[in-house]
Amino acid sequence: MKKISRRSFLTVAGSAAALTVLAACGDSSSSSSVAASSTGSASSEAVKLDPVTLNVAYMPNYSSLVEVVTGIEAGYFEEQGITVNLVEFADGPTIIAAMENGSIDVGYIGSGAHKLCINGRAKIFCFAHCGNGDAVLALKSHGIATAADLKGKTVGYAPGTSSEAILDKTLEAAGLTRSDIVGMEMEASGIVSAMISGSLDACALWSPSTLAVTEQLGDDVIKLADNLTFSDQSASVSSWICMSKYAEEKEDVLLRFVRGLYKAKDFRADPANAEQISEWIAAKCGLDKDTVYAQRGDAEWLTSAELLDEINDGTIEALYKSQQNGFIASGAVEAEVPVSDYVMFDLMLEAAE
Predict the structure, then answer these.
(1) Whole-prediction pTM
(2) How is the beta sheet containing 123-131 ordered, strand by strand?
(3) How does strand 299-300 pair with strand 182-185?
(4) What does R_g of the chain's alpha carbons equal in angstroms?
């Protein structure tokens, strides 16, 4: 597993700145002895806060769950008077659709679904991380050694997600377009099965599905590209989102939720806590602990202080701008949109006060 370099993203960000169900996973549980020893008991401030239960959307991987499960298990949301009801989804566009019908309050999305935020369908209220969990994988036995060899091949991808985004970038870099391949629109689980059976020549996926394909097929798999391949073009940013109406009406709840996330970020940022967090995620959502732990390098994990510093110096805005530029180049976004129109930097800063 390649660990993402924060320096690479900061270099890109600096350059960009210069140029300008469903499966419910469970309710909030009491803190474990490990969390209790590091965080203490729930703050007495929680008594003064109106209790609220949030339906929180996630995808079944380490990057999506690392903050929210840590916040639950370590009691950080409890301190804010928040009970979290986790609800599983396959991808970001489906999460946004569930928000639009009112069944989900807030949720985590990967990079691909951010085009919907840019196009006005949702608001970003907290930066999660920049990741390196997406990849285009191919089978050597099917005659593929480089991205150029994808011409005429059958390639599986999940439409509207980061899978589609990295596939398009990979094809473009090789001088190809979607019309040069036999594209198969599929869900992530179907792509994994199709790759293992050999009915696909290649695929575009995100972690942990990329790990599943690699583990099953071993040396026959070649990675043609990942997020870092295109870090100079489009940062792979993941975020916490909600509907615009929810942001207007429930700003106080969002502030409390972000404060819980900030404490979770600080706990998560210590590599020594990765195994404990992996155990929490695996236990809460019925995932394999070793598989979860193997995903710990899918992103660079900022502390809350680092995040605030990078909001203030423009780095985070530049990352979102880089991401948007990638969508504009691919045609997923028609025209430039001010990042502040869809990213709530003021709320992120206020949550730290």
Answers:
(1) 0.74
(2) 23-26, 82-88, 52-58, 106-109, 237-242, 123-131, 299-300
(3) unpaired
(4) 20
For residue 276, the 8-state DSSP code is H
Q: Nearest Cα to 233, choosing from 12, 14, 19? A: 12
| H/E stretch holding 225 | strand 221-226
Q: Which two tokens stand for residue 156?
A: 């599986």
Cα distance between residue 103 and residue 96, in whole Å: 10
Joined together, the tokens standing for residue 190 give 């179907």
Q: What is the bridge-based pairing of β-strands 123-131 and 299-300?
A: antiparallel
Write the CB contacts of 47 (distance below 8 Å, at least 6 apart in sequence): none
**Between the CA of residue 253 and those of 52, 77, 308, 347, what are the distances in Å?**
8, 11, 20, 11
Is residue 200 within 8 A of residue 184, CB to CB? The reply is: yes
Beta bridge partners of 55: 85
Over residues 36-75, the pLDDT tens digits come to 333 333 444 444 789 999 999 999 889 999 999 999 999 9
Q: Give the amino acid at 63.
A: S
| 343: three-class secondary structure by DSSP | strand
